[in-house]
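Postdoc handover notes: sequence design on the structure in folder B. Input tokens:
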């Protein structure tokens, strides 16, 4: 299968350098070779992988002769294929077609079909696959600044309250905010400026706030993880400007006892603390005890991220740190005996930093 992925990438590079006319002719000829059946889940995964290489780099003014049928096939393989590579390739290719569709009436028809299939998938035996596909479509609409981007993002936010796929929905925000060459200008896709900042404003959306404040435990965890993924993606200065509103989110993340949520939260806080923003001095009583607790977590990533946070806190104003100095130094003793070398190194660095607090060598 790896050979076909390589071939697909070669096709993609070649197609990218063709003119609009040449792309149109090449597609028309090559699509005749595909046996795209109506029941898309039965299309061989290899065909979908190669189709991605053919269609992903198309220019916006290249119109496919049978676009609706192709969309239908990709929807079926994205939701029902048992091959993970085929599922992802189909979802990405769907997102690319949505991003480049220039006729708004055609686009709305395609989106209506996609929404119907995703809604059915969520309610049947393909809920996780439906969330992945939804995430890519949301990303595509946001990147092209389409008026329906808000509507589709709200669909994903609603799934944060779903009883079984809430965490899948949270991971959808990671997909939306990740850099993606497939949906970039290199493949002639529209790219919205500051799209991550646009997503950031949704942290304070009433629907997300309701899930976070009054949802069940799973909904709160999912909402917290989604918010954390958003915060990771945007500039630190933007997060600091809203830090007082986000403290409650971070605290809930620590209380979730979910290693994935806690690791992501610590990654955010480590990045923010490394900037030396003075606002964090106000929250030392909130964070230091939680960082120390996380330093003995069963997850290596959590331990490492917690130790990074403790290290960066050790560089703040000493008058705020001295009450915690002895406790931190004592608690980090056990981390020096951690079975993982990388954890021991970070523990030694953090402990050395806190030894200097209040001494003449501190600054």
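Designed sequence:
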């Amino acid at each position: 299968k790896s050979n076909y992925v390589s071939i697909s990438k070669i096709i993609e590079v070649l197609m990218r350098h063709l003119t609009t006319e040449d792309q149109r002719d090449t597609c028309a000829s090559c699509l005749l070779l595909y046996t795209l059946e109506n029941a898309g889940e039965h299309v061989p995964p290899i065909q979908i992988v190669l189709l991605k290489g053919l269609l992903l780099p198309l220019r916006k003014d290249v119109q496919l002769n049978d676009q609706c049928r192709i969309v239908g096939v990709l929807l079926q393989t994205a939701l029902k294929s048992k091959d993970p590579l085929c599922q992802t390739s189909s979802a990405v290719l769907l997102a690319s077609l949505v991003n480049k569709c220039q006729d708004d009436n055609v686009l709305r028809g395609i989106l209506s079909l996609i929404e119907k299939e995703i809604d059915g998938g969520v309610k049947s035996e393909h809920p996780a696959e439906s969330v992945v596909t939804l995430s890519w479509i949301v990303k595509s609409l946001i990147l092209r600044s389409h008026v329906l981007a808000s509507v589709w993002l709200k669909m994903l936010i609603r799934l944060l309250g779903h009883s079984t796929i809430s965490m899948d929905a949270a991971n959808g925000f990671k997909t939306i905010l990740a850099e993606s060459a497939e949906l970039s200008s290199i493949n002639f896709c529209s790219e919205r400026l500051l799209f991550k900042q646009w997503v950031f404003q949704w942290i304070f959306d009433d629907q997300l706030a309701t899930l976070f404040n009054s949802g069940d435990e799973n909904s709160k965890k999912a909402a917290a993880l989604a918010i954390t993924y958003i915060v990771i993606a945007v500039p630190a200065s933007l997060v600091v400007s809203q830090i007082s509103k986000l403290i409650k989110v971070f605290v809930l993340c620590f209380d979730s006892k979910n290693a994935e949520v806690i690791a992501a939260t610590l990654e955010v806080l480590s990045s923010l603390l490394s900037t030396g923003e003075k606002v964090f001095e106000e929250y030392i009583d909130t964070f230091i005890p939680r960082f120390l607790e996380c330093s003995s977590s069963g997850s290596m990533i959590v331990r490492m991220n917690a130790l990074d946070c403790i290290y960066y806190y050790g560089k703040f104003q000493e008058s705020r740190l001295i009450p915690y100095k002895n406790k931190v130094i004592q608690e980090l003793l056990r981390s020096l005996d951690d079975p993982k070398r990388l954890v021991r190194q970070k523990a030694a660095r953090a402990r050395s930093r806190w030894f200097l607090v209040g001494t003449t060598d501190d600054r």
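Context for whoever picks this up: The mean pLDDT is 91. Don't rerun without checking with the PI first.
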